[in-house]
Amino acid sequence: MVRVAVVGAGYSGFNANSPDLSWKEITYEAAVRAYEDAGINPRRDIDAVVTCAEDFWEGFAIFDEFCPDQLGGVLKPTFTVTADFLFGLANGVMLIKSGLAEIAVVEAHSKASDILTFGNVVKFAYDPVWLRPVGRGHPFYLAALEKSYYSNLRGYCDYTYAEVVAKNRKNGRLNPDAPYSADLTADDVLSSEPLFYPLRKLEIAERSDGAVVFVLAKGDIARELNPEPVWIDGVGWNSETSNYDTMSFTAVYAMKAAEMAYDMAGIENPAKEIDVAEVDDRFAYKEVQHIEALKLAKAGEVDELLESGYFGRKGEIPVNVSGGSLSVGNLLEATGAQKALEIVLQLRGEAGRRQVDAEIGVAQVWRYLPTATGAVAVFSR
Amino acid sequence: MVFNEKITNPAELRHVQGRIELYWIYTSGEAGDVFFKKLRDEGKFTASKCRKCGHVFFPPRIYCEFDFSETEYMEISGEGCVLAFSVISYDSDGNRLEKPEIYALIGMDGTDGKIIHLLGEIEPENIETGMKVVPVLKPKDQREGKITDILYFKPVS
Ligand SMILES: [Zn+2]
After folding, report:
1. What's the per-residue H, E or C state across B53-70?
2. Which residues of B touch A21 (CB under 8 A)?
3. Strand B80-90 vs strand B71-76: parallel, antiparallel, or unpaired?
4. Of the candidates A242, A247, A132, A370, the residue with the CA atom closest to the CA atom of residue B147
5. Which of residues 7-36 of B touch A (CB under 8 A)?
6. Residue B20, number of CB atoms within 10 A of its CB
7. 3-state secondary structure A364-378
8. Is the bond preceding B45 in cis, omega lying within 30 degrees of 0?
9. Which of A70, A204, B57, B87 has the fewest CB atoms within 10 Å around its CB?
10. How many angstroms separate the CA of residue B67 from the nearest CA in chain A?
11. Is the N-terminal amide bond of A77 cis, ω within 30° of 0?
12. Minimal Cα–Cα distance from B139 to chain A, Å?
C-alpha cells in the first residue's frame, strides 16, 4: 500500500490583517518556507498543485487561474478545490496514491481582512429563495439557532461554551501566531453581551490572514527527503445536505468524515488512540459538537470532561492546543490548514512552549456557515 | 527580498477598492412555484410527501433526499412550534439594528420539516422553545409569491 507523508510545511501569518502583502505574496512566503522545509526545488520536483479557495472570499472569479505562479506551479497539473484545505489534502493524498504524482503541493490561504462586507458574503451562501430574504439580521443567526437547538438536545449550558473560549484563548498565549489569544475566564465570556443571542461575541472567532503550504510525498520518496516524516494515515470528508430542515445540527458531517478517516487509518478506539486534536471552533459550541463527532467523548458528556481539564493542554486529549480558531482567527478555507499544521508541528516536536506528547493526531474542519459539510485528517509519526 | 525588505511605513501601503455589482433571477423551481403561488393566492401552505418513505418535506421539493424518489404535494396548516430562537442585534453589514430581530427555527405541524423565519408580536424574554406559533401574512393585495409574503410567525394567543 502506498503511504503518503507530509515532508514540508510552511506558513505565513497568522495576523489580524496584512496590508503590506497581497494574498499571492503571503502564499509565496508560505510556499518558500514549505519548499525549504522539504528540501526541494518546486520548479524541478513537484508533480501537481492543489489549491483551496472560494471565489467569493477572494473577490474575483475563476480563482484557480490565479494560483500556479506563487507556488512554483507554472506549467504543472494544477486544480482548485472549492473547499477547505483538508479537502485539498485529501485530493493530494489521492493524487499520490493513484500514482499520478509522487510529490504534490497543497495550499490554502485567507486574506479575510480584505473583505469589507463579510456578513454579506456569508449571507450570499444562504438559499436565495427560502432563506436569504428573511429579515435583515447578521447571518450569524444561523449559528445562534444551531447552538440553541443543539444545547437543548444535549442539555449543555452556556458555561460549557464559555470554558471552551477560555481554554482556547489561553492556549493561544503559548502560540506566537495567535493574534486573538487572551487571558480570559469563563466568567468574562458569560458576562459579555449576547449580540447574537444566545451567541456572545467572545464565542465567535474573529477573522485573520495567513497562508499554509504542505508538500506531500509518496512513502519511499518521503523517507529520502526526511527520515522521520509525518504520515497521513487517513482522510475523510462528508456532506449532510444543503437543507436546513434535514440537517442534523449535531455535526453528523464531522462524525461521518471521522469514521471514513479512522477507518482508513485503522483507528478503532479514537478516545484511546488519538493523542492530540485540532477541531473547528469558529463558534465555541462547534468545538463541543466536533469533540463528540470525532468520538473523543460520548454525546452529552463533553461538559464534565471539559470542566475536569480532560481537553486542556495538560489533559488526557489536548484539544486546540494551538489556541484554535478562537485564538488564531477564522482563516476561511485555510482554517483546516492551520489545524493540520498544528498537528504536524506537534508530531514533529516543533510546537515550542505548547508542545504536548503525541504520536497520533487528528485535524478536523467544518465548511462554515451555512453548511453541514466537513473533513478530517489523521496524522502519525 | 520578501523576507528582508518589508515595507515598514504603513502610510506607503497601497490598495484599490473594488466592488462587485451583479444581478440574478433565482427561479423558485417547480415545488417553489406550487408553494409560493398557493401562498400568494390562497394564503395556504404546501408541503411534499415522499411516495416511498413517507417523509414530509417542508420546504416542499419534488424529490426525496433520503431514497431519491418522487414526492406528492399536500396542504398543511402553516402552524408550528419553536424549536430554537435567536435574537440578533446587528445587520449583515455589522450595524446595530434599531430593534433586534428574532429568528426562529420552527417545526412545521404535520410535516417532518422546518422553516427558519422571524418571530413577531412577542418580546424575547417571553419566548419558550416548544411554543406554538402561527404565520402572519401580508395582506393579499400586497403578496408577491415570495418568502417575505410571510411577515413573521406569532404566538397563538
Ligand atoms: Zn423518501
Report:
1. CCCEECCCCCECCCCCCE
2. 2
3. unpaired
4. A132
5. 7, 10, 13, 15, 17-18, 20, 24, 26, 28-29, 32
6. 9
7. EEECCCCCCEEEEEE
8. no
9. A204
10. 13
11. no
12. 18
**CA B79 to ligand 1 centroid distance, Å:** 23
Mutate to test the interface with A, among B58, B86, B119, B125 (most CBs of A within 10 A): B86
Domain segments of chain B: what residues? 10-155
Picking from A44, A102, A51, the residue whose alpha carbon sits closest to that of residue A72 is A44
Q: Angle at which helices A141-154 and A284-293 pack, to 10 degrees?
A: 50
Top CATH class, A4-116+208-225: alpha beta
Interface test mutation site (partner B, options A15, A118, A138, A152, max chain B beta carbons within 10 A): A138
Mention the CATH class of domain B10-155. Answer: mainly beta
E-only strand ranges, chain A? 4-15, 48-52, 78-81, 103-111, 196-197, 209-218, 230-239, 276-278, 360-366, 373-380
> For each of chain A's 381 residues, which pLDDT tens digit applies?
899 999 999 999 999 999 999 999 999 999 999 999 999 999 999 999 999 999 999 999 999 999 999 999 999 999 999 999 999 999 999 999 999 999 999 999 999 999 999 999 999 999 999 999 999 999 999 999 999 999 999 999 999 999 999 999 999 999 999 999 999 999 999 999 899 999 999 999 999 999 999 999 999 999 999 989 999 999 999 999 999 999 999 999 999 999 999 999 999 999 999 999 999 999 999 999 999 999 999 999 999 999 999 999 999 999 999 999 999 999 999 999 999 999 999 999 999 999 999 999 999 999 999 999 999 999 999
Spell out the residues 6+ positions from residue A376 whose beta carbon is closer than 8 angstroms to its own.
A86, A234, A235, A236, A237, A254, A257, A258, A260, A261, A294, A362, A363, A364, A365
pTM of the entire structure?
A: 0.97
Of A28, A116, A152, the CB nearest to B84: A152
Contact A353, A270 (CB under 8 A): no
Interchain CB distance below 8 Å, A142 and B116: yes
Contact A20 B101 (CB under 8 A): no
